[in-house]
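Can anyone check this?
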Amino acid sequence: MFKEVHGGKNIYGEIIGIIMGERTFPRIPGDMGNTTTFGFPVRLYVAKGIDVSTRMRLFSGSAEFIKSFIQAAKQLEEIGVKAITSNCGFIVQYQDIISNSVNISVFTSSLLQIPLVYKMLNKDQIIGILTADGSPKGLGKQHLKAAGAKDIPVMIRGMENAEGFKALNENKGTIYPEKIKKELVSTAKDLIKDYPKIGAIVLECANMPTYSKFIQEATKLPVFDFVTLTNWVYSAIVKNN
């Protein structure tokens, strides 16, 4: 037992804070927006003005969201979380802005893992990225640069035309997990078939970790996502031994 414990907050034990957009589609286990995804307490914070109607402006890095992100980060820090992440890989463009607004660790995107993953690979291998949107207006050079990965060889494949996955992007009230699983597995396999030098896969989207296991089993490659990153950061903050 502790000899002395000091208070000052209303809530305790939530180590990781997650900045969420205003989306209402079902978030099943594995999704960053479902707290049962994690084996430790997390705090979700919905940032206002970040919804389906503003999606493409968010992807482009519009400055209109800066105030909402900073407010969310500061509120989470005040609540008492020890690190902050998000539920969209494209938020990597705001990484420096958000991290400089608080005094705790910030890791906005699963894409931040790319430099580390690349260091793990054979020098002739490359990284495959599955993203919610691989169109010309989607994941691109500016996002990789923000993640510290501008000079790392990657091949990107988007899910913007996949029927099941589009229900997530369009914030539908019903989703079809089995269909989404098949789409992601098929896309990953096709990507590797087209680019055999891929040695690992990084999933950009925070809705994809639900299906990481199936992608890994189908490709026999390491699969990194928002959850692997969040678990890694948590393990650095809370030591069990």
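Reply from J.R.: I decoded it. The chain is about 35% helix and 15% strand.
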